[in-house]
């Protein structure tokens, strides 16, 4: 019983991490039609900023709060300078964002060297329920993920900003005709997606420690999750991330980890092949 | 990105009927275009430089150059798939690496190193994997989206990387070390000029085959696919079949390159099937110029050459410079460095047999 509970908690917490990372990726892919190869590096940057705050002697949570804002601002600038040119061609966008990611990743590698740098958890210790111990920080990540998910959903479905974003997604020319500044919306959406990646990086760095290839590890999982969930809505990628995250964490408990690792990707690709619209088809929130 | 009216126009004329002179359709009279062709000159210069290289280079540089030539062969396979048919294969290393692992296992477990067995075996492995993956991703009732194909190949390559890392039989993280050298009767190909000329010979043969292929009617259909897939489908071509065929040919060439690479380096390791090498080959081709065969070769030589030259002094910042250069090329020179010397018209090229006598006929 206790083992099953610990396993369930592990699966849930890994699922939450994947959802957190995929949120930004999914928003950019759904709202702008761009598969952002630099998203993994935005995660890395968020982690790096948190580490920097810790190394300079500031409280860790200060770094975690700063990370999404800094990464979001960078995303806004990059969108205005570079990403904007790629909207017409999705493949070129992949290559361009890949180049951007390469620059960011190698810069960070140059700054931290080839090391694994650890950042302590701001909320350490464990929560004890009877004989069972679960990590307090992992529990905090689950809570924050739920809050961020709810916040994003409300932002997109209930505010006038969300309405503008959805209008721009559905019909850019009509949105422009209605007086919505679509370039500004695209810029804000990209910055928002980048900020979410920064937040994800800041939150996971105590769990995975900081190394230059941190983002790469999650990027492909994130893409697969977005495709499984379905591009074009907010809920789709989140659902996909839940499925992929749960599968990747749960399968190693029942079979050899190597087989499980590969099986998740094979299953996902087969699923997408036969259901290209994803789990949740359709536009909207 | 590669939009050019020339191809579209040509495609129309070539399909409408045989009466129309193809070279007239693009607006270049055959005689005038022959006088100022840059492409054969570029190809000739590269070939002569490659032939002379081992004579002037030191031994360790010959070994390095051999590696570059093998990678150029690999780049050629990606260029066929992306530059000509417009299929974004982010997982080309899957075929390169699986062939490398295949021949490494042949050499390790069965002691087979005969060049006439291992090279065809590697090519066949590449072809088989490409047929399986390409068939799955590209064929089917509904045409697959470009995003799905590119992410599907990327995922395939990543999954293969993870499998190679975790599978004890394949050597895990360390790969398979100290592969016996390739042999021909009693002769063993070790690193050096002999291996260099062998690889160069293979590259020239494959290059000429590709050149023939992309200038044939099949190549014209491929160029049409790249420019406007729907139109090609309306002409009655089976667009998905064409894509699967060129994808398989690309996989076979990548497999050939991979088996040569495995024997040249003497070991294979998981990166060879993974995302690292897959993206590396994309870099080569984008730099050199996709859609021209020689562009792939030149791109490989430049990227590898400069990184070899810079990595002594600027090891840390070289990848950053590479990223910046790549970004600049994508933004401002989408047709690659070759477009500085090669005009758009010549890049598109002429297709099919020349029909010169027809113009003089009444």
From TrEMBL, chain A:
Gene Ontology cellular component terms for the protein in this record: plasma membrane
Chief subcellular location: membrane
UniProt xrefs under Pfam families: BPD_transp_2 (PF02653)
Transmembrane intervals: 6-27, 34-54, 60-78, 85-104, 136-156, 184-211, 223-244, 250-272
Protein name (Swiss-Prot/TrEMBL): Branched-chain amino acid ABC transporter permease
Compartments where found: Cell membrane
Recorded family membership: Belongs to the binding-protein-dependent transport system permease family. LivHM subfamily.
Gene Ontology annotations of biological process type: amino acid transport
Keyword set, alphabetical order: Amino-acid transport, Cell membrane, Membrane, Transmembrane, Transmembrane helix, Transport
GO molecular function: transmembrane transporter activity
Topology of the protein relative to the lipid bilayer: Multi-pass membrane protein
Organism: Bradyrhizobium forestalis
């Amino acid at each position: 019983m206790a083992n099953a509970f610990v396993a369930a908690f592990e699966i849930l917490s890994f699922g939450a991490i994947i959802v957190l990372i995929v949120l930004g990726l999914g928003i950019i892919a759904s709202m702008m039609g761009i598969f952002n190869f630099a998203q993994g590096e935005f995660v890395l940057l968020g982690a790096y900023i948190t580490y920097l705050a810790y190394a300079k002697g500031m409280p860790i949570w200060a770094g975690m709060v700063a990370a999404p804002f800094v990464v979001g601002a960078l995303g806004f600038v990059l969108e205005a300078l570079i990403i904007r040119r790629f909207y017409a061609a999705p493949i070129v966008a992949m290559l361009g964002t890949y180049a951007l990611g390469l620059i960011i990743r190698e810069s960070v590698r140059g700054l931290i060297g080839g090391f694994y740098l650890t950042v302590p958890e701001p909320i350490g210790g464990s929560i004890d329920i009877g004989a069972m111990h679960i990590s307090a920080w992992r529990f905090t990540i689950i809570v924050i993920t739920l809050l961020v998910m709810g916040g994003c959903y409300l932002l997109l479905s209930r505010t006038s900003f969300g309405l503008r974003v959805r209008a721009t997604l559905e019909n850019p020319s009509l949105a422009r005709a209605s007086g919505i500044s679509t370039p500004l919306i695209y810029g804000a959406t990209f910055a928002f997606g980048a900020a979410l990646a920064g937040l994800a990086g800041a939150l996971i760095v105590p769990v995975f420690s900081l190394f230059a290839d941190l983002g790469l590890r999650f990027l492909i999982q994130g893409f697969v999750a977005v495709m499984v969930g379905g591009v074009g809505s907010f809920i789709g990628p989140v659902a996909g991330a839940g499925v992929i995250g749960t599968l990747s964490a749960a399968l190693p408990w029942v079979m050899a980890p190597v087989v499980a690792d590969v099986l998740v990707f094979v299953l996902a690709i087969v699923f997408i092949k036969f259901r290209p619209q994803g789990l949740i088809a359709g536009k909207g929130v | 990105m590669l939009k050019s009216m020339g191809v579209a126009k040509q495609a129309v004329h070539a399909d409408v009927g045989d009466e129309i002179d193809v070279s007239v359709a693009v607006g270049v009279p055959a005689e005038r275009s022959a006088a100022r062709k840059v492409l054969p000159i570029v190809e000739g210069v590269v070939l002569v430089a490659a032939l002379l290289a081992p004579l002037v280079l030191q031994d360790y540089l010959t070994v390095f150059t051999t590696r570059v030539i093998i990678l150029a062969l690999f780049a050629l396979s990606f260029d066929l798939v992306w530059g000509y048919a417009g299929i974004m294969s982010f997982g080309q290393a899957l075929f390169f690496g699986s062939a490398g692992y295949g021949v490494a296992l042949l050499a390790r477990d069965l002691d087979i190193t005969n060049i006439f067995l291992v090279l065809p075996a590697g090519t066949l492995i590449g072809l088989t994997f490409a047929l399986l993956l390409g068939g799955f991703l590209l064929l089917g009732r509904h045409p697959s989206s470009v995003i799905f194909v590119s992410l599907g190949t990327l995922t395939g390559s990543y999954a293969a990387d993870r499998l190679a890392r975790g599978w004890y039989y394949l050597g895990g993280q360390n790969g398979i070390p100290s592969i016996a050298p390739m042999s021909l009767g009693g002769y063993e190909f070790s690193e050096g000029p002999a291996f260099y000329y062998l690889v160069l010979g293979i590259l020239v043969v494959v290059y000429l085959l590709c050149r023939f292929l992309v200038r044939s009617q099949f190549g014209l259909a491929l160029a049409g696919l790249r420019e406007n897939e729907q139109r090609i489908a309306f002409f009655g071509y089976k667009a998905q079949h064409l894509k699967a065929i060129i994808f398989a040919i690309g996989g076979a060439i990548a497999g050939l390159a991979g088996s040569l690479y495995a024997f040249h380096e003497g070991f294979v390791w998981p990166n060879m099937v993974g995302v690292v090498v897959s993206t590396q080959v994309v870099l080569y081709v984008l730099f050199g110029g996709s859609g021209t065969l020689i562009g792939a070769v030149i791109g490989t030589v430049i990227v590898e050459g400069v990184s070899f030259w810079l990595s002594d002094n600027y090891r840390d910042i070289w990848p950053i410079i590479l990223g910046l250069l790549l970004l600049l090329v994508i933004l401002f020179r989408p047709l690659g460095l070759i477009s500085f010397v090669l005009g758009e018209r010549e890049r598109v090229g002429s297709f099919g047999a020349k029909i010169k006598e027809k113009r003089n006929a009444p």
